[in-house]
Amino acid sequence: MRIHSIAVLGAAAFAALTSQSISAAEIGGVKLEPYAGVLGGYHTLNVGSEYTRPGAQLRGDVHGALIEGVAGVNVPLGSLFFVGVEGDVSRGFDQIRWEYGVRGRVGVRTATGGLLFLTGGTHFVDPKGLYQRHNGTVFGGGVELGAADLGLSNFGGEKGPRLRLQFESYDLDSLRPMAGVVFHF
Hints:
- The protein is mainly beta.
- The protein has one domain: Beta Barrel (Porin), CATH 2.40.160.
- It is built from one helix and ten strands, in the order αββββββββββ.
- The strands form two sheets. The protein has an eight-stranded antiparallel barrel with strand order 3-4-5-6-7-8-9-10.
- Strand 4 and strand 5 form a beta hairpin.
């Protein structure tokens, strides 16, 4: 529960800071591009011994729909590339109680301001029932499409809402497609 509280406090602090118009802030001469968003998706994990409580003989999949909040910051590396860090907290349904984690991002900007990215980091899954909480490595990638990418060039620019589509795998044993809206400040 302590990690959930830390994640919620971190998200609240991020929201408070960004509500004070910290857009593309600079710290020590480094430009920061903060963002936050809400995603939805589905996670199917291949259950192995790492999830099974001692004495339980369970096999199959742990699965469930997810509602996820994300917050992060990108640092431009010139006009084309970027690196970043992102945290997430997901509320699960069906057989998943909570998921949360932190990951690094590296990517490239499109000519119209969209983002193509790869991610990697650590992720915790807290399933319901006879399964136990487990942490592991998450890998993935995705795309963020801004207004210009969607043919709405008079709306938003590089800031504002973006459609995000991403696909991740947890310990290379799962499928985790997600989609939602991310707001860049």
